[in-house]
Amino acid sequence: KQEVTQIPAALSVPEGENLVLNCSFTDSAIYNLQWFRQDPGKGLTSLLLIQSSQREQTSGRLNASLDKSSGRSTLYIAASQPGDSATYLCAVKGGSEKLVFGKGMKLTVNP
Amino acid sequence: GAGVSQSPSNKVTEKGKDVELRCDPISGHTALYWYRQRLGQGLEFLIYFQGNSAPDKSGLPSDRFSAERTGESVSTLTIQRTQQEDSAVYLCASSSTGRQPQHFGDGTRLSIL
């Protein structure tokens, strides 16, 4: 059974720092991996999707990497801003169509 | 609209009542998913539709839960005889194919008194 872990559960940093968010998964036989952000009271916003054959994806200040063999992904946020404050979720898709989610990491960027 | 739309946004009901939650996916998206997010827990998969068929219902927690999709568009999740443990945010997502990202609605926050 696939399990997805995100550690730490919460992080508070000053504005301007470069951040690395970690995600690990137990079954390396994944189809793709998706990073989301969730603002309070809102649904999930898709940030980046990495197919199993890819090593990384970039969008603006965000870069996500995937090391399938070791069961790890990282989300890099450059020059963090208060507007980046949210909960970040990692999810993997395996042999079925469903996504298996981590519990998320709550990020607070202080001005 | 351009995104996934869910209604109602909030629902408060008494234990034992039936509730219906609605999802309008992005136009043209053939895949539709329901997830549940309980307080302090991760998102749990409930059911997946491809077109109007549901090849994976493995996440439905009990026979009080059912879902249907019509016209390869709107989906309804029905919970019968609601219990307090059904209190959660119910999220719907859609995608064009399995290789594409899943796009989520804002969810329905269900509270059972």
Describe how the helices and strands are arranged.
The complex is a heterodimer of chains A (111) and B (113).
Chain A: E1 4-5, E2 10-14, E3 19-25, E4 32-38, E5 44-51, E6 56-59, E7 62-67, E8 72-77, E9 86-93, E10 99-101, E11 105-110
Parallel strand pairs in A: 2-11
Antiparallel strand pairs in A: 1-3, 3-8, 4-5, 4-9, 6-7, 7-8, 9-10, 9-11
Chain B: E1 5-7, E2 10-13, E3 19-24, E4 31-37, E5 43-50, E6 53-56, E7 65-69, E8 75-79, E9 88-95, E10 103-104, E11 108-112
Parallel strand pairs in B: 2-11
Antiparallel strand pairs in B: 1-3, 3-8, 4-5, 4-9, 5-6, 7-8, 9-10, 9-11
Distance between the termini of chain A: 41 Å
Task: Please report which band the strand proportion of chain A falls in: under 5%, 5-15%, 15-25%, 25-35%, 35-45% or over 45%.
Answer: over 45%
Low-confidence stretches of chain B: none
Q: What's the overall geometry of chain B? A: globular
Helix content of chain A: under 10%
Number of strands of chain A: 11
Strand content of chain B: over 45%
Give, in order, the helices and strands of chain A: EEEEEEEEEEE
If you average the pLDDT of chain B, what whole number results?
94
Determine the most extensive contact between two protein chains. Answer: A-B, 25 and 28 residues
Average pLDDT level of chain A: 95
Helix coverage percent of residues of chain B? under 10%
Q: Work out the helix count of chain B.
A: 0
Oligomerization state? heterodimer
The secondary-structure class of chain A comes to mainly beta
Plain-language structure description:
- The complex is a heterodimer of chains A (111) and B (113).
- With 111 residues, chain A is mainly beta.
- In chain A, 0% of the residues lie in helices and 56% in strands.
- Chain A contains no helices and eleven strands.
- In chain A, the strands form two sheets. In chain A, strands 2, 4, 5, 9, 10 and 11 form a six-stranded mixed beta sheet that branches. In chain A, strands 1-3-8-7-6 form a five-stranded antiparallel beta sheet, with no helix packed on it.
- Chain A is globular.
- Chain A starts with a strand and ends with a strand.
- In chain A, 35% of the residues are buried.
- The mean pLDDT of chain A is 95.
- Chain B is mainly β.
- Chain B has no helices and eleven strands.
- Chain B has strands spanning 5-7, 10-13, 19-24, 31-37, 43-50, 53-56, 65-69, 75-79, 88-95, 103-104, 108-112.
- In chain B, the strands form two sheets. In chain B, strands 2, 4, 5, 6, 9, 10 and 11 form a seven-stranded mixed beta sheet that branches. In chain B, strands 1-3-8-7 form a four-stranded antiparallel beta sheet, with no helix packed on it.
- Chain B is globular, with a radius of gyration of 13 Å.
- Classes of the chains: A mainly beta (111), B mainly beta (113).
